[in-house]
From TrEMBL:
Species for this entry: Turnera subulata
Cross-referenced PROSITE patterns: BTB, ZF_TAZ
Domain BTB: 95-163
InterPro entries: BT1/2/3/4/5, BTB/POZ_dom, SKP1/BTB/POZ_sf, TAZ_dom_sf, Znf_TAZ
Alphabetized GO MF terms: calmodulin binding; zinc ion binding
Stretches the record annotates as Disordered: 49-72
TAZ-type domain boundaries: 269-367
Keywords: Metal-binding, Ubl conjugation pathway, Zinc, Zinc-finger
Superkingdom per UniProt: Eukaryota
GO biological process, one term: response to hydrogen peroxide
Entry protein name: BTB/POZ and TAZ domain-containing protein 3
Involved pathway(s): Protein modification; protein ubiquitination
Length: 407
């Protein structure tokens, strides 16, 4: 922040003028305890008691449909019908085709059911292989238990949770390969809702990209970014590193980028906090000079006393700073750091004030005149600072203390 020339005789005289503008109740103040106005906690200049509480999140168990039935419990297919289809699959009555799986196991099925449930299987069944008069098709590359669960789902949409959790990645591949959207949505949903672990997240990420599941892919990447150290020690990462080094490089770059974004966000938050504190200091300065507060204020105002609460967060720190500034003997010679801070706040106010003729803040007109003598470089710095403080003020929202009418 540009600062005034502390050795200027004009400012020395202006400082004497400033001290005569206030009625100050003298209190013992240790100079070591003088508060830095720019470090007063902001509290977001908001009044928590006036912010309405948000409604509670909907409870899954209490979510209901329009007809009053619970959505989680409702189903478009009655349970007895699902059980009948499940029984048909398990007993294999009237099966006309067999599905050969890994290890030579086979599963009896009905070609008309498979064709209606999966267009891909329907195309395959148009030209099935035949051996000893028995039609069969092959589904290889995954465990036979996963194929069994897959075919069972085609019949009845039924599954056992423990088995599903064990073979969810295999079923994701099968549902995508054989175009069974219902099963694919189920697998993606279960993985997104908590079935991803550090041991399977790399496999899930690669399968999500191959099976056109972009949301699942994004969740996997976020999980890797959040816990790269643990995940990079898993077997899945080691296999991926050998088979797909480009993906490893991409994930490492994602971690670096996420760290950079986090640091940038932290920097911007600190910067915004500083501008909010400056805005609060401007509000408190105007409050003290116009209305008076507790133990300091204009000579034509009755002071409220130190026991009265003040709604301006920066008021206490600024009050102590003003008291120090009024009595400091080294205000200009030697450049007292607290007085220098006061000069800066007064000049900032002057640059933000649009009514210098009627303004109650001391030296406001003085700094308006001083602006004409500053260099273009200093002028540009001050203009940038003023714009940042005004932007912080505008970003406070409708629940700031001043806007809800408390101040």
């Amino acid at each position: 922040m540009a600062s005034p020339d502390l050795d200027s005789p004009a400012l020395s005289a202006a400082g004497e003028q400033f001290g005569g503008c206030f009625t100050v109740c003298i209190e013992e103040v240790n100079s070591a305890k003088i508060l830095d106005v720019l470090e007063v906690p902001t509290g977001s200049v908001s009044c928590n008691q006036n912010v309405p509480k948000p409604p509670p999140f909907p409870d899954k168990k209490m979510t209901t449909s329009r007809n009053g039935t619970r959505i989680s419990d409702s189903c478009s297919v009655p349970k007895d019908i699902k059980d009948a289809w499940d029984k048909l699959f398990k007993e294999g009555y009237g099966a006309d085709v067999y599905i050969v799986t890994h290890g030579g196991s086979y599963i009896p099925a009905h070609s008309w059911v498979l064709s209606h449930a999966s267009p891909v299987l329907g195309n395959i069944l148009q030209q099935p292989k035949v051996k000893n008069g028995i039609k069969y098709i092959k589904i290889l590359g995954v465990p036979s238990e996963a194929v069994y669960m897959f075919v069972r789902f085609l019949y009845s949409s039924c599954y056992e949770e423990e088995e599903m959790k064990k073979f969810v990645l295999h079923l994701l591949v099968l549902s995508h390969s054989y175009s069974v959207p219902a099963m694919k949505r189920l697998c993606v949903h279960l993985l997104e809702q908590g079935w991803l672990t550090k041991d399977n997240v790399i496999d899930a990420l690669q399968l999500a990209r191959r099976c056109d599941a972009p949301r699942l892919s994004l969740i996997c990447v976020r999980m890797v970014v959040k816990d790269l150290k643990s995940i990079s020690s898993t077997e899945g990462w080691k296999v991926m590193k050998r088979a797909n080094p480009a993906l490893e490089q991409e994930l490492v770059e994602s971690v670096v980028e996420a760290d950079s974004r986090k640091q940038e966000k932290s920097r911007k938050m600190e910067e915004r906090k500083m501008y909010l504190q400056l805005h609060e200091a401007m509000e408190a300065l105007l409050h003290i000079c116009r209305d008076g507060c507790r133990t300091i204020g204009p000579r034509d105002k009755v002071l409220k006393g130190s026991q009265v609460a003040c709604n301006f967060p920066a008021c206490k720190g600024l009050e102590i700073l003003v008291r120090h500034f009024s009595n400091c003997k080294t205000r200009v010679p030697g450049g007292c750091v607290h007085c220098k801070r006061m000069w800066q706040l007064l000049e900032l106010h002057s640059r933000m004030c649009y009514e210098p003729e009627s303004c109650k803040v001391p030296l406001c007109r003085h700094f308006k005149e001083k602006m004409q003598q500053q260099t273009k470089k200093d002028e540009a710095k001050w203009k940038l600072l003023v714009s940042k403080v005004i932007a912080a003020k505008n970003a406070l929202g409708p629940f700031s203390a001043r806007r809800v009418g408390l101040l």
